Amino acid sequence: MADRRRINGPPGSTMPPVFEDDAGQPEIKNGKGRDRAPNVIRKMFLKTGVTPSASGSAYLEFAGSSNSGVSGLKLSCTVHGPRSLPRSSPFSPHIVLSAHVKYAPFATKQRRGYLRDPSERDLGTHLETALRGAIIADRWPKSGVDIIISIIEGDQDRETSKSQGDETWDMMNALSGCITVASAALADAGIDCVDTVAGGVAALVEDAGEGSTPRIVVDPIPSDHEKVLGACCIAYLPTRDEVTNLWFKGDLPASDAGLYTQLVENGIQASRNANRVLVECLGEATS
Amino acid sequence: MTTSNPTLAIPGQLLGSTSKYQPGPGTHIHNHNVHASLMGTVHIAQPAKAPGPVKRLTKITPAPAPAVLPTISVTVPTRSAGSDHAGQKKREVLPEVGNVVLCRVIRITPRQAVVAILVCGDTVLEAEWQGLIRVQDVRATEKDRVKIYESFRPGDIVRAEVISLGDQANYYLSTARNELGVILATSEAGNAMHPVSWKEYRDPETGLSELRKVARPY
C-alpha cells in the first residue's frame, strides 16, 4: 500500500534491538512461561465515557505479561448514533448495526496500512455478529449505529521473531477485547441490550519442555507457550446463558470430542470473568 | 421506591417478575421477568399517576395487565459532575407514531412539504430526521382544496403529529387537528408574523397577511 502523500513508516517490522544481558539468560524464549493459573485471565482496565463527542465510548486495556515483552492490548471504542440512515439505504424496521475494527498503523510489529485489511474486516464481522445477539434491534426503527474500535496497541511480543507468532491467535484475543469494550460503549450510549456481552478466549496449548501434555488455558498469550494447538473465542451473555458468537480455530485431535466442549466451557468461563469487570465498570459509571 | 429494588441497573439485570411490575421504558421481558435493557437508574411509577410518554414495549407483551401493577423503568442519567457537556449528553430519542413534534419546513412542492424534525415531545433531537407532510394530511376538512403553498412556506416552524414511520427517508406527519399547524412564521418582508385566524398570519409592520395552516394557540 504505497501512499505517496503520507510519510510512511518503514514497511517492514520495527523491532527495537534487544541486547544480550550480561547476566546471560541463555534462552529467553523458552525461559518464560505463563505466569497465571490456567483459569485466570489477565487483569484489565475498563472505563466508559472517554470520548465526549461520541454518543458512547469505552477504553479497555489488558495488563501485559510480567515475564515477557508483551505490552498488553489497548482498545478504544466509540459508538455513534442512533442516527438517521443515509437516504440511499432501504427501509429498516430495526437498527442497522455496523462495526469497524481498525488496527492503528503502529499497533503491531508489522505496520498496518491506513485502509482496513481483510483480517480487520473479519474482526468487524465477528464483532457485529456478537453484538447483534445482544442488542434489542427493534427499539430503534429506521436508524443506524456505528461502532468503531481502534486497536491502539496489539499484544505482541517484542522479542519473538515474526515467523513464530501466528497472527490468528492475536486476532482472537483482540476480538474478545473488542466484544467487551463494545458492550460497555453500547451501554454508555444508551442503546437497549438484553444483556452485557463479554468476550473470552480459551486455548489448547503445548508448553515448552519435553514430555509436556497439551493443556487448556484461558486468555492465552501465544508467546508464553511453545505452541498453540487450537483456540476458541466466545461472546457470551451471562444472565441469559447464551452464546452469541463462537470462533473456533486450530488442529484438535478428532478423536476427542470432549476437548471441544471443554474449550468452549473454558471460553465461557473467561468471558464470565471479563463480564465481572464490565459489570463493575458500568456500576461505577452509573453511580 | 422499595428498598429491595436496586436503584441502579445495567443491561440484563433482573428487576422483578412480570406479576409484580409492568415493563416501562428501558426494560424488556425475558422468561416472565422484567430485565433492564439500559444502564441507568431504576424508577417505579405507581399506576395512580400517569407514567409519562410510555415508550413502545417489546413485541411480546402480555395482555394489558390490570392497572394495579406499578410500571418499572430505567432511565439514563444525564452526564454531570465536572463534565461541560452536562446538558448535551442526553439519550437520543426517536419520533414515534402519535408523538407531537416540532419541525421546520425545508421545501414545498404541490404534493407535499418536506420538513426537518427538531423536537420530539419535550426533547430536542440530536440527529436531524426528515419528515413529510402530504397534501392530504394538512387538514381534516376540505382536503381536496388544500394547497401546500397556502399552508406552509419554507422556514416556518410547524407543530405536527407523527402518523407513520414512513419510508426509508421520511417520517409521515399530519397537521389535521386544530392545535397543529404553523406556530412561527416569517413574512416575505422577513418580519415575524402573528396569527389572526385559522388560515391567516399577518405581518405587523407591512400589514399584509399571508395564508398558512395556523395552529390554534394553547
What's the helix and strand layout?
The complex is a heterodimer of chains A (287) and B (218).
Chain A: H1 28-31, E1 44-48, E2 56-62, E3 74-84, E4 96-103, H2 118-132, E5 143-153, H3 167-189, E6 198-206, E7 215-218, E8 227-237, E9 242-250, H4 257-286
Parallel strand pairs in A: 4-5
Antiparallel strand pairs in A: 1-2, 2-3, 3-5, 6-7, 6-8, 8-9
Chain B: E1 8-9, E2 14-17, E3 22-23, E4 27-30, E5 33-36, E6 40-45, E7 71-75, E8 100-108, E9 112-120, E10 123-134, E11 157-164, E12 170-174, E13 181-184, E14 194-197, E15 200-202, E16 209-211
Parallel strand pairs in B: 3-7, 10-12
Antiparallel strand pairs in B: 1-6, 2-5, 4-5, 6-7, 8-9, 8-11, 9-10, 11-12, 11-13, 14-15, 15-16
Keywords, separated by commas or semicolons:
heterodimer, A: 287 residues, alpha+beta, 5-stranded mixed sheet, 4 helices, B: 218 residues, mainly beta, 4-stranded mixed sheet, elongated
Describe the structure.
- By secondary structure, chain A is α+β, with helices and mostly antiparallel strands.
- Chain A has four helices and nine strands.
- Chain A has helices spanning 28-31, 118-132, 167-189, 257-286; strands spanning 44-48, 56-62, 74-84, 96-103, 143-153, 198-206, 215-218, 227-237, 242-250.
- In chain A, the strands form two sheets. A five-stranded mixed beta sheet of chain A has the order 1-2-3-5-4. Chain A has a four-stranded antiparallel beta sheet with strand order 7-6-8-9.
- The longest helix of chain A is centred in the last third of the chain and has 30 residues, at 257-286.
- The termini of chain A are far apart.
- Mean pLDDT of chain A is 84; it is low at 26-31.
- Chain B is mostly beta strands and 218 residues long.
- Chain B has strands at 8-9, 14-17, 22-23, 27-30, 33-36, 40-45, 71-75, 100-108, 112-120, 123-134, 157-164, 170-174, 181-184, 194-197, 200-202, 209-211.
- Chain B has a five-stranded mixed barrel with strand order 8-9-10-12-11.
- In chain B, strand 9 and strand 10 form a beta hairpin.
- Mean pLDDT of chain B is 82; it is low at 80-89.
- Chain A: Belongs to the RNase PH family.
- Chain A: It is found in: Cytoplasm; Nucleus.
- Chain A: Residues 41-191 form the Exoribonuclease phosphorolytic domain.
